[in-house]
Amino acid sequence: MRFVRWQLAWMLAAILALAAVGAFSYELFFVLSLLGLLIVTELTAPVAVTPDWRRRLRWLILLGLTGFAVIISRRVLEILSPEVLPW
Predict the structure, then answer these.
(1) pLDDT (tens digit, 9 = 90+) per residue, 18-62?
(2) Is the distance from CB of 65 to CB of 34 less than 8 angstroms?
(3) Is the pTM higher than 0.85?
(4) Which of 3, 4, 20, 37 is deepest in the core (most CB within 10 A)?
(5) Is there a contact between 37 and 67 (Cβ–Cβ < 8 Å)?
(6) Contact at 8 Å (CB) between 41 and 61?
(7) CA 70, CA 73: separation in Å to the nearest integer?
(8) Cα torsion at 42, 44, 50, 51 (round to 10°)?
(9) Contacts of the segment 27-31: beta carbons below 8 A, 24+ positions apart
(10) Contact 37/64 with Cβ under 8 angstroms?
């Protein structure tokens, strides 16, 4: 439960910070939440024994990193001029 509380606190702080600076977007919120997931995962890692739920957390992290790659590739394609792209 400590992991879940920290992750929810991180996500709430991300929403409030993005809203405070007027930069809220779903993409930025996703990236900040993924960053929080990675940080909270490392900070709450047990020393000796890895519970089963933490092994399944790897799949969530992999899914999040895939989503991050999609966001980055979309941003790169927006930046590139149409003459550069072959299609």
Answers:
(1) 999 999 999 999 999 999 999 999 998 888 887 888 888 999 999
(2) yes
(3) no
(4) 37
(5) no
(6) yes
(7) 5
(8) -130
(9) 27/71, 30/64, 30/67, 30/68, 30/71, 31/68, 31/71
(10) yes
> In which residue are the tokens 């003459």 written?
83
Structure tokens at 76: 């790169």
Q: What is the DSSP letter of 22?
A: T
Structure tokens at 66: 């895939």
Residue in the structure block whose two tokens are 């939440």:
33
Q: DSSP secondary-structure letter at 47?
A: S
The Cα-based distances of 46 to 12, 19, 61, 64 in angstroms read 25, 34, 17, 22
Question: Distance between CA 58 and CA 56 in Å, rounded?
Answer: 5
Residue 3: closest CA among 50, 41, 29, 48: 41
